[in-house]
């Protein structure tokens, strides 16, 4: 065997070792993220007694869908509350998403295309809000919402979520617009389109992945938010899911199967949304990494 | 079922001093509707079902039944994990109230145990509180001292102060004025698993007599069976922690102040006294030296110990009689072979009196909840509908509903509740109830000072955590807690 081939083989072994190391690491990461989800699902199909067994029943001896039936049955009080919380969350998250996109799209376009006094300052200023922990704003925002008459309304949450979500949405979308050649708009203008038509008919379709990514980001943020919903809402009829599922914890006991079933159902919209639109999300996040 | 004779235990156990201390703590020494000097399981049975009450008729004298109004109300609710029986009574209560007062628009909001105080505090900062609130017993004085609450006494809703436990009334008093009415009162008991005791070589029918025995039994269970012996709880900012540590602290003769004295002054901090350090040392011995309690005790609350106990992985804990109902519910909802397993757990559940200290001192936290009415300026909308609030207070604190709303977990705030037919039914249906009614005279109220929630929920758990994690020695942890309490009492912050 020649010296060159020995070197090549050793290099190949080194590469294989790294490759296998990487694979093992990825499998471990997969287990790390997937096992809690699997455990959540398995606990949700156990009875309350089976969920408390030690050593645990890895797979329930007597699987039951009782917790799901209870949660999804609008004729009992638990189901009524849960479904109401679900719709409240859906309403707040969808409205927040729509408003975030509606405001972020033109704002990001303006930051990308127009040169106006204070542009840089304003662009960084929108991020100022996100430089502090949310809890700092909790009581001031609560007092503000009370003065605006928005406590115990979903409006208080939508407004608050927008203040958090918009800056990042604008940053995300600006990166997208920066990578769409300005010449395309110029061509459209030469062909007789107005500035708005050039934006709406040329730029918007090209920035669809960015808009979708922004929408997913806003939706997930609003869907999972807890501390502001917990503070601003005091009426059962208004509660959103993250706050509503607290009802499975009592002073001295916890309904683990009910909690896990509720958590599983709560995670579904986000998972489905992400699975359907993940390629846009990934594309949006990597857009701008390479200069076109 | 335990062969423990609680009647004999209670008669032998209550010292005259303890009972006198309890009675002397009454703001008004007048005749209560029950004879507290005869208090025993037999006495409780003898008075149960001896008197009829008509709640609607009684409350109509406070607020006419056709009164038209609106009331916002927050309370610690019952939720999915609570026994079905209790949840049904809560549901029935609100149905009955709305039926009795059809023109009062009641907007009730149930909150969880660990959230109520924080959420209420935040709402008050924004002047957006409810008109009425039902708080854990340690909360009332804090809010009364800050000027958030209106004066409210049992006489305002048609009852007498003597209709309620003196210690419970005391928890509503600030600077000689009364700011609330007790809804329910509770004293917990000691619960153990007879099968675990047997397998560990202990008498399955006899609980540890003293706290030193608890340490010893816990070690024996852990050493022989490899499971946790005692359900230590040391989580921060959770009411469960002081409720379980203070009986131990008092049993050893210690205290935060002099709260176990006949006439406490709360003037001298005693959490670093030799007796208090002895109590902390017992927890240290179980957690650090013997490793005989759950390793997760630092973040555990009772809801975390319960699954361990029900799974046969924990030998002893302090708990409510409601745990028995929780177990019955779990069995009812189990299927297949799990039903028999659940029945085995039920068959092995035993309840007994809380252990004593080395000197025979037995004590337990006198817990419960109180109803309060807020001042209008702190209420969302700036108005309080007083007649509507009084109607709800009258209804909930009535003999009938104060009993029913405490059916599975505690005892009625209104002493007349013990005379109702529902109490008789309860004594027949709820196993081990005798034990907690027996513990009532041993109840010691938390210090009735505004700083109590901060001391009990933050400083006491902090002291435990400092000692158990080894951040400080037992002596240092107790001294550190004493320093923090002095600072708080002097108006400082933690």
Could you characterize what this model shows?
Chain A has 292 residues and is mainly alpha-helical. Chain A folds into two domains: 3-44; 66-286, Orthogonal Bundle (MetI-like fold). Chain A is 72% helix and 0% strand. The model of chain A has no long low-confidence stretch (mean pLDDT 86). Helices cover 44% and strands 13% of the residues of chain B. Chain B has helices spanning 6-13, 16-24, 41-47, 55-60, 84-100, 116-125, 140-145, 166-170, 194-199, 211-225, 240-251, 274-289, 302-310, 322-333, 337-347, 386-396, 399-404, 421-429, 433-439, 452-468, 474-489, and strands at residues 69-76, 104-111, 132-136, 173-174, 177-178, 181-186, 189-193, 228-230, 314-319, 349-352, 364-365, 367-373, 411-412, 443-444. A six-stranded mixed beta sheet of chain B has the order 2-1-3-12-6-13. In chain B, β4 and β5 (177-178) form a beta hairpin. Residues 1-28 of chain B have low confidence and may be disordered. Chains A and B meet through α2 and α6 of A and β2, α6, α13, α14 and α15 of B.
Architecture blueprint of SSEs:
The complex is a heterodimer of chains A (292) and B (494).
Chain A: H1 3-44, H2 48-51, H3 66-72, H4 77-113, H5 119-125, H6 138-147, H7 154-178, H8 182-190, H9 195-206, H10 208-224, H11 227-232, H12 241-244, H13 256-286
Chain B: H1 6-13, H2 16-24, H3 41-47, H4 55-60, E1 69-76, H5 84-100, E2 104-111, H6 116-125, E3 132-136, H7 140-145, H8 166-170, E4 173-174, E5 177-178, E6 181-186, E7 189-193, H9 194-199, H10 211-225, E8 228-230, H11 240-251, H12 274-289, H13 302-310, E9 314-319, H14 322-333, H15 337-347, E10 349-352, E11 364-365, E12 367-373, H16 386-396, H17 399-404, E13 411-412, H18 421-429, H19 433-439, E14 443-444, H20 452-468, H21 474-489
Parallel strand pairs in B: 1-2, 1-3, 8-9, 11-14
Antiparallel strand pairs in B: 3-12, 4-5, 6-12, 6-13, 7-9, 7-10
Helix pairs in contact in B: 10-12, 11-12, 14-15, 20-21
């Amino acid at each position: 065997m020649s010296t060159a081939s020995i070197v090549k083989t050793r290099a190949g072994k080194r590469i294989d070792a790294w490759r296998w190391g990487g694979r093992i690491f990825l499998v471990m990461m997969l287990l790390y993220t997937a096992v809690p989800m699997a455990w959540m699902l398995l606990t949700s199909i156990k009875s309350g007694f089976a969920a408390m067994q030690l050593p645990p029943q890895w797979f329930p001896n007597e699987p039951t869908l009782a917790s799901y039936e209870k949660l999804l049955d609008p004729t009992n009080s638990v189901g009524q509350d849960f479904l109401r919380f679900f719709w409240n969350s859906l309403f707040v998250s969808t409205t927040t998403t729509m408003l975030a996109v509606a405001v972020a799209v033109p704002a990001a376009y303006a930051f990308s295309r127009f040169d106006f006094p204070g542009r840089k300052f304003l662009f960084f200023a929108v991020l100022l809000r996100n430089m502090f922990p949310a809890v700092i704003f909790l009581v001031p925002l609560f007092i503000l919402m009370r003065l605006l008459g928005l406590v115990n309304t979903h409006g208080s949450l939508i407004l608050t979520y927008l203040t958090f979500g918009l800056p990042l949405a604008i940053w995300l979308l600006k990166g997208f617009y920066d990578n769409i050649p300005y010449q395309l708009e110029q061509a459209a203008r030469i062909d007789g389109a107005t500035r708005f038509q050039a934006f709406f008919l040329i730029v918007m379709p090209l920035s669809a992945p960015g808009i979708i990514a922004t929408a997913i980001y806003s939706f997930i943020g609003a869907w999972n938010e807890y501390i502001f919903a917990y503070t601003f809402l005091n009426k059962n009829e208004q509660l959103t899911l993250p706050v509503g599922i607290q009802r499975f914890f009592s002073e001295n006991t916890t309904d683990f199967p009910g909690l896990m079933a509720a958590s599983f159902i709560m995670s579904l919209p986000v998972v489905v949304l992400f699975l359907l639109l993940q390629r846009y999300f990934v594309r949006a996040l990597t857009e701008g990494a390479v200069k076109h | 079922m335990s062969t423990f004779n609680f009647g004999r235990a209670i008669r032998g156990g209550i010292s005259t001093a303890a009972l006198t201390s309890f009675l002397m703590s009454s703001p008004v020494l007048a005749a209560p509707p029950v004879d507290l000097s005869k208090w025993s399981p037999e006495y409780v049975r003898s008075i149960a079902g001896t008197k009829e009450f008509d709640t609607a008729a009684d409350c109509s004298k406070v607020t006419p039944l056709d009164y038209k109004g609106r009331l916002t109300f927050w309370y610690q609710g019952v939720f999915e994990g609570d026994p079905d029986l209790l949840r049904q009574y809560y549901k029935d209560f609100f149905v009955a109230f709305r039926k009795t007062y059809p023109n009062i628009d009641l907007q009730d909001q149930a909150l969880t145990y660990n959230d109520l105080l924080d959420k209420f505090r935040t709402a008050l900062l924004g002047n957006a509180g409810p008109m009425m609130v039902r708080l854990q017993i340690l909360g009332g004085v804090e809010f009364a001292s800050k000027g958030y609450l209106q004066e409210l006494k049992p006489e305002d809703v048609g009852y007498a102060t003597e209709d309620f436990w003196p210690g419970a009334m005391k928890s509503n008093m600030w600077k000689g004025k009364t700011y609330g009415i007790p809804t329910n009162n509770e004293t917990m008991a000691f619960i153990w698993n007879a099968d675990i005791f047997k397998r560990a070589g202990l008498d399955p029918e006899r609980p540890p007599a003293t706290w030193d025995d608890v340490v010893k039994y816990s070690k024996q269970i852990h050493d022989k069976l490899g499971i946790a012996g005692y359900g230590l709880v040391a989580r921060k900012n959770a009411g469960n922690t002081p409720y379980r540590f203070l009986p131990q602290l008092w049993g050893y003769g210690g205290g935060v102040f002099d709260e176990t004295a006949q006439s406490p002054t709360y003037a001298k901090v005693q959490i670093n006294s030799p007796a208090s350090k002895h109590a902390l040392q017992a927890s240290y011995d179980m957690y650090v030296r013997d490793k005989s309690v759950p390793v997760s005790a630092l973040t555990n609350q009772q809801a975390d110990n319960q699954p361990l106990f029900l799974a046969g992985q924990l030998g002893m804990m302090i708990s409510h009689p409601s745990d028995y109902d929780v177990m019955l519910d779990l069995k009812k909802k189990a299927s297949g072979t799990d039903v028999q397993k659940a029945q085995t757990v039920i068959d092995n559940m035993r309840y007994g009196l809380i252990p004593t200290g080395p000197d025979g001192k037995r004590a337990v936290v006198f817990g419960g909840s109180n109803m309060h009415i807020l001042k209008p300026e702190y209420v969302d909308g700036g108005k309080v509908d007083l007649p509507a609030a009084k109607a709800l207070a009258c209804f909930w604190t009535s003999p009938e509903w104060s009993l029913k709303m405490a059916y599975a977990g505690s005892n009625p705030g209104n002493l007349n509740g013990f005379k109702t037919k529902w109490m008789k039914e309860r004594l027949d249906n709820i196993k081990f109830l005798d034990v907690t009614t027996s513990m009532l005279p041993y109840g010691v109220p938390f210090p009735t000072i505004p700083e109590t929630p901060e001391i009990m929920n933050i400083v006491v758990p902090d002291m435990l955590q400092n000692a158990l994690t080894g951040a400080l020695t037992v002596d240092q942890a107790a001294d550190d807690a004493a320093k923090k309490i002095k600072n708080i009492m002097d108006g400082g912050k933690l």
